[in-house]
Amino acid sequence: MGLDGKKKFKKIENIITNIIMWLELVLALFILGAVILSCKDIISLIYKVFITEALDSYTVLQGLLSHVLLLVVGLELAMMLIKHNPGSVLEVMLYAVSRKMLVSSSTTVELLLGVIALGLIFLIDKYLHTKDTEKIIK
């Protein structure tokens, strides 16, 4: 492949990279829009917490927490699509595991695995994820 071939290949690679970046931005905007539209459901769930009797309020509160944490995971996912750094991936994983543990951990084994997963995420963030490289990239 000659010098002209390499330049053409590099130009095509840059075009494809730009298309992918724009598609990720559009997907992040769709996620953000969905989160904003879902905020109305939070208001109705909060109202349900107030009007529900004490015995049934646990289920309603669990639904509220589940919904709020799902929206947080959605926001973090949108940030990950925009920022493109390892810290964003770790934050999405952290919130996703936390949501799973708080909302639907039914057995002790699931809870233990969630705690181990959170511990591993924190260890990776502290010892393997270097925050200095993110500052250099920006």
TrEMBL record:
Bilayer-crossing regions: 21-47, 59-82, 102-124
Keywords attached to this entry: Membrane, Transmembrane, Transmembrane helix
Protein name: Transporter
